[in-house]
Amino acid sequence: MDMQTVVLGTSGTTPQDVVDVARHGARVELSSDAVEALAAARATVDALAAKPEPVYGVSTGFGALATRHIGHDLRAQLQRNIVRSHAAGMGPRVEREVVRALMFLRLKTVASGHTGVRPEVAQTMADVLNAGITPVVHEYGSLGCSGDLAPLSHCALALMGEGDAEGPDGVVKPAGDLLAAAGIAPVALKEKEGLALLNGTDGMLGMLIMALADLDTLYKSADVTAALSLEALLGTEKVLEPELHAIRPHPGQADSAANMLAVLKGSELTGHYQSGEAPRVQDAYSVRCAPQVAGAGRDTMAHARLVAERELAAAVDNPVVLANGEVRSNGNFHGAPVAYVLDFLAIAAADLASIAERRTDRLLDKNRSHGLPPFLADDAGVDSGLMIAQYTQAALVSEMKRLAVPASADSIPSSAMQEDHVSMGWSAARKLRTAIDNLTRVIAVELYAATRGIELRHGLSPAPASAAAIAALRAAGVAGPGPDRFLAPDLAASDAFVRAGRLVAAVEPVTGPLA
Length: 515
Known about the structure:
The chain has about 525 residues and is mainly alpha-helical. It has two domains: about 5-200, Orthogonal Bundle (Fumarase C, Chain B, domain 1), CATH 1.10.275; about 205-315 and about 340-510, Fumarase/aspartase (Central domain) (Fumarase C, Chain A, domain 2), CATH 1.20.200.10. The chain has 19 helices and nine strands. It has a three-stranded antiparallel β-sheet. A two-stranded parallel ribbon has the order 1-2. The longest helix is centred in the middle third of the chain and has 31 residues, at about 200-230.
């Protein structure tokens, strides 16, 4: 089967599948076992719908209105109404990749056979994804409990042929027109289906999975830039040796130290800290403790990855259809597990940015850079060098510290106090995306400064891996040392270089795969 086709069964999916569908347009197919499970669960819901006893989401209102029994003649209207009324988002549009992840993950839960949605509705969800139709979802509207209600409602609205969506050409049009152009019939929702399409942690989970993919590259990139800064500052690589990290057995720390040591192998710039008139006994914390800080972030990522994998294996809905045929109310839609790790990652990202900025500042300060010119300028005084690049980096770090304030520690009651404690996981995910954008820029500034610092160490050769990184950066159009120039384009090019994973790609042919 085509590598760009993801088959959804009853057992869930993988993080890579989510990234492939969200970012790379992979097609989605439903497996035969998923279709069978969907049909079986739907038969259970149909049987319950025929009985006089009220069942939440099937024959009752929602939330604080669950006390009203809804007759057969109003149930289709009930399902339409929950989608229309809950599609109440406001603010800027959410990114296309986030919406695709949201839709795919809701389809993943639907395909589990625990929601009672008909097979034809699930197939329509897959058809919309495969047609490249992306509903317009807004920034604000989710409290992370009962799941990402407003964002998912905007997606369900598009399935009904209502609201707006972006077509495969990037143009926003009425969703009904886009469905018609793709030959997709709008769905007419039946009992429980409207609720089942809205009630999940899919937005925050999708953003967590993509954040982990981005951070995996960024933590490797940060190990490389830390090594480059160490070289430019004539630091010692002795603190990176495995026996020092074995006696404090945090796995992320050992991986970061190993990455840095691999980058520095063969350098003529390291190990000079004891020479000269004022020998250094040891390097500053921002250099010496780089593996400890980056390693702690890596271990945080490992925990977040475990939470994401558990959530990917979950069927989040309320009520759910159990294997024994019971339909049971539950609280599995509460986003706390995902919200906590989203906040934790924002804290780790802020600290990684903070230590990278401190190394950059050290490179620019003639009193602490061990012989480099002030601000790495060509003719200091006439030239300002990278002075203001560090200002920009500091502004980014300051913003990241604000973004590290946990969203999950907040809760605002809703739905007439029926939903009186919420996770704010969507908000945690949104600020993490901003933090990751800023972290990429911070690492790009350190890369720009460290490579210039190395090139200003005349007569000493950098490590082969460092030389490869510098050559790749220069080939990408980022200038080396010289008189002042318009700096913003260079910083933007360095950002694009890091963001695309090209820094890691440049050094790995020399170092081997980084951990």
